[in-house]
Amino acid sequence: MSIGIAGRITQTFIQSALTPLILIVSVILGGMALLSMPQEEDPQITVPFVDIFIRTPGLKAEDVVELVTKPFEDILKGIDNVEHLYSMTRDDGIALTVRFDTGFDDDAAVARVNDAIDANRYRMPANFPPPLVIGRSIDDAAVVVLTLSPKPGNKGRWSAETLYDLTEELKHEIIKVDDVGLTYIIGGQPKELRIEPDPELLSLYGITLNQVVEKVRNANTSFAAGSLRNANQLTPVIIGQTLQSTTKIGLLVITAVDGRPVYLRDVAKVVIGASLGEHRVSQLLPVSDDGKSYERLPAVTLAIGKRNGANGVAISKGVLKRLELVRGDLIPDDINVEITRDYGETASHKSNEMMLHLILATTAIVIIMGVFLGWREGIVVLLVVPSTILLTFFTCWMLDVTLNRLTMYGIIFSIAILADDAIVVIENVSRHWKMHDGRSVLQATIDGVSEVGNPTIIATFTVVMAMLPMLFVHGFIAPFLAPIPIAACAAMIFSLFLAFTVVPWAMLKLRPDTDKENTESAAAIREDEKEAQGGVFGSGVRSIMGGLLSTPKRAKYTVFVIVGLSLLTFLIPYYKLVLFKIMPFDDKQDIQIQFDLPEGSSLEATDRILVEATHLIGDIEEIQNMQLYAGVAGPFIFSAWSVRTTCAIRPSWGRFAFDYRLPGIEIARATPLQWRYASA
Questions:
Q1: Angle at Cα 451 formed by Cα 449 and Cα 453, nearest 5°?
Q2: Tell me: the pLDDT tens digits for 643-658?
Q3: Whole-prediction pTM value?
């Protein structure tokens, strides 16, 4: 009998000294991968966006469309690998967003846009400022968000201006953490110097606003003009000077009236104070034991991103560690710092939870094998399955696949067939041992593997071929799906290889002594031979299948029934008896309630909507705190909104959703843990 591919592989490795090294190397490589693989919540994807802002002072939107928007759209559409192009034109300016193909390099995308604009700058109207080109990346989305606000009862001691200054100092400390990426501040009122002209005084002295602007601009100019040689020394020459104080600014001479100079302070106020931004950020903290009463406090948010390919869990831990180091020193005791987003914690939780499920599945398989085939067979499975999983982690690491929920999902998805290869080989080798037909144990082992080898290879590669098409999906979803087939295919191929190499070797090593085997009684031998024929289960299968296939007519009906039942399974998704989804269920620490009010709505109007929304949901016991973002977008997740409320919930890892109605606002129910509001 030909032993086939599986038999030849087993024959090579069953007594080889390399076989135990395979187990040792798999543990070492897998351990290296687990320690080195970046952990994050979702797969690392690259979707380059490039924002282009062009100022067109003095032009109406209709003119901007014809003179700038359409020509630049044509230019940008001609760039290779551009997938989508968006534009928004308003009076005095235009904003364009170029989205490149998924997986395209971020830096190359920005370079191509700059090259295209520089090559066609002559198409812009004369005397316009140069375009501003900003590259965006999915890594710009914050992994950790900190919100600073006064503790309840200290509202009067802290303003939006002082909170901003404190947050800026904290930002300088946070960026010292390794691999921290884009970090930015939302809310607050930074200090600024303002010149506030008085229209009546300008009219009294006959001064135009343009005169004031030009005077201040020219007086605040300084530039290098070479150097002078003097006594073998080079002295740099600086022409002009910059304005140093509000007093000097106020003493600028604008013009003269009746021989008397008119100073800037005569027609305008020069002040240094908080900026007058049209936004408002607040935090609601519970002030009652039942958590149903909240105090609204001024707040400033610090959003912390990560670099491309960095470990989100490590960054999160580093940021929180740095925060604890500066607490009490940089951060006063009367300032509350809320961790309103921590994707490192959620990523760690999901990885640990799926790893636990992986361990439980492996343990269940080992116990089942031990109960039905024996403790030695259970130990063999305990050796093979973890080794397969560790080699799979190593493969993912080598292919730059991060440790995320989809990678773990792919491994758990394949756990059944992953263990099935080893189980089939173990069971058949054990059956051949019990035949007592005069063959040596070594030959019986090889024959047992070769008998089931070809069907096992076909079954494994059938599933592999079914998973491979997911690797060739294009578009935005491709990077999300890629870890599933990579992890699943690697796990199944390694399981097949270990089933033909390590399993037979381990079976021989754990087999009882041959001398003891020869002392078995005739009754025990007969029992083994009965087990070799399949035992009770084998007899039952033969009896049932014999009845179904005993005649051609019965066999035909059996095939029709099987095919009919198979076709009926296609009705399961149609009638929604089982819900199908590509991505695993997700849990978040925060809920984002987003409003899109009619264009032109005032800051006060949007703020009232936010406050009304917080009154509706304030009695939900899972909510720990709430942040209100009026007139400014909160920490973005690749969606920009004019106003936003964020609620932090307890990390119970539960999933819930609500459906409320506000006057004049349509609320769309969304799951999990995200609501969208659209203008009614």
A1: 60
A2: 455 555 555 444 333 3
A3: 0.74
